[in-house]
Amino acid sequence: MAEKIGLGIDLGTANLLVYLEKKGIIFNEPSVVAFDQESGKIVAAGIDAHRMIGKVHSKISVIKPLKNGVISDMYAAKELLTYVFNKVQNITEKELSNSSTVMCCPSEVTKIERDIMIELANNLGIKDIFIEEEIKAGALGAGLEIFKSKGVMIVDIGGGTADVGVLSFGDIVLSRTIRMSGNYIDAEIMKQIKKDYKVEIGELTSEKCKIELADLRDNAPLTTIRYAGRDIVRGIPKYVEITSEDVRRILVPTYTEIVKLITAVLKDTPPELSADIYENGLLLTGGGSMIKGIEDFIWKRIQVPVRIAKNPFTCVAEGAKYLLKNRGDYLVNPMQL
Ligand SMILES: Nc1ncnc2c1ncn2[C@@H]1O[C@H](COP(=O)(O)OP(=O)(O)OP(=O)(O)O)[C@@H](O)[C@H]1O
Ligand SMILES: [Mg+2]
């Protein structure tokens, strides 16, 4: 009988990462897929589809299969993963049906949202499926020692959700999620620019503007960058000068909400574990942890030392590697519960 393959899938709101045992990360691109409306066929996936956002004619639809950390379009999610399995790595249906697959999800998902992930796996022909919390996989992939009797805190700031969890003895003691993160900031920047400058900018431009101008430091220098958009009054293309202050006005309240979430989790953490966290600090993962000055921003508000993972974008997929390697000990098939 053919050897059973191990797969790890971090199907994020912004980025999809697929880990294949013995090979490593075989796909790391945006969670986006583009279809030809007439034939229903995929015309692009990943980075190529991402480049099409806001730029295609009506015969092509560009879809992000996830919203706020959970699957919102099952068909698109299945097609995107099928594309990755067939085109990128040539993983056959037989291999998939004989695989052990770990799929990661935010910690506070409803039963229905979790069941949708299992349904996606079934639609892909995967029988041996394990759903694991992103924060646990992320902690393992970032090299945190979670199996000791010591509390560790992990904060994942992704595209769709901010997830805070405390782990001890190898599992999550408590966790909370808010569906307010990178994509929310991009949408708020778009709204603000439209209101203040009467210029509409696209989703990709808004994200670029966030990445280039975001700075949470108190003494951050004022920077201005010119972006192309559309004048909403005259309907013609127009450049708009966006400042780091414009972005900061959205960034600060959003990251304040994330700090409130951390505080809420700390409040409910048993005292012995919270003492460990105050001593050892918390670990940040996900793309939203890349913002300048984030460590000080959190430290000043709650006096807990903050570290950023070395691999903030890939640690969840790398954690899947660990879980697969030790699957006999840590993974429970939800269909066998
Ligand atoms: N340098 C940066 N500064 C700020 N934000 C960034 C930076 N680089 C990437 N991001 C943001 O990080 C987010 C993507 O992070 P990540 O890949 O961890 O999300 P995800 O895992 O797909 O989402 P989720 O886990 O919430 O479903 C995007 O919103 C992106 O704009
Ligand atoms: Mg993620």
Q: Tags for this entry?
A:
single chain, 337 residues, Nucleotidyltransferase, domain 5, Actin, Chain A, domain 4, five-stranded mixed sheet, 27% strand, binds magnesium ion
List strands and helices in order, with pairings.
Elements: E1 6-11, E2 15-20, E3 24-30, E4 33-36, E5 42-45, H1 47-50, E6 60-63, E7 66-67, E8 70-71, H2 74-88, H3 93-97, E9 100-105, H4 111-123, E10 128-133, H5 134-141, E11 152-157, E12 162-168, E13 171-178, H6 182-197, E14 199-200, H7 203-213, E15 224-231, E16 237-243, H8 244-268, H9 271-280, E17 282-285, H10 294-302, E18 306-308, H11 315-325, H12 327-330
Helix pairs in contact: 5-11, 6-7, 6-8
The site of adenosine-5'-triphosphate has 23 residues, from helix 6 and helix 7.
Unique ligands: adenosine-5'-triphosphate, magnesium ion
Overall pLDDT:
94
Strands of the widest sheet, in order across it, are: 3-2-1-9-10
What name does the CATH topology of the largest domain carry?
Nucleotidyltransferase, domain 5
Computed structural class = alpha+beta
Pick out the low-confidence regions. none
CATH homology-level superfamily of the largest domain: ATPase, nucleotide binding domain
As a whole number of angstroms, the C-alpha radius of gyration is 21 Å
Could you say how many structural domains there are in total? 3
Shape summary: flat
Largest sheet: 5 strands, mixed
Task: Give an account of the 3D structure.
- The chain is α+β, with helices and mostly antiparallel strands.
- It has 3 domains: 6-137 and 315-336, 2-Layer Sandwich (Nucleotidyltransferase, domain 5); 144-180 and 252-308, ATPase, nucleotide binding domain (Nucleotidyltransferase, domain 5, 2-Layer Sandwich); 182-249, ATPase, substrate binding domain, subdomain 4 (Actin, Chain A, domain 4, Alpha-Beta Complex), CATH 3.90.640.10.
- Helices cover 39% and strands 27% of the residues.
- The chain has 12 helices and 18 strands.
- It has a 5-stranded mixed beta sheet with strand order 3-2-1-9-10, with helices on both faces. It has a 5-stranded mixed beta sheet with strand order 13-12-11-17-18, sandwiched between helices.
- Strand 12 (162-168) and strand 13 form a beta hairpin.
- The longest helix is centred in the C-terminal third of the chain and has 25 residues, at 244-268.
- The radius of gyration is 21 Å and the shape is flat.
- The mean pLDDT is 94.
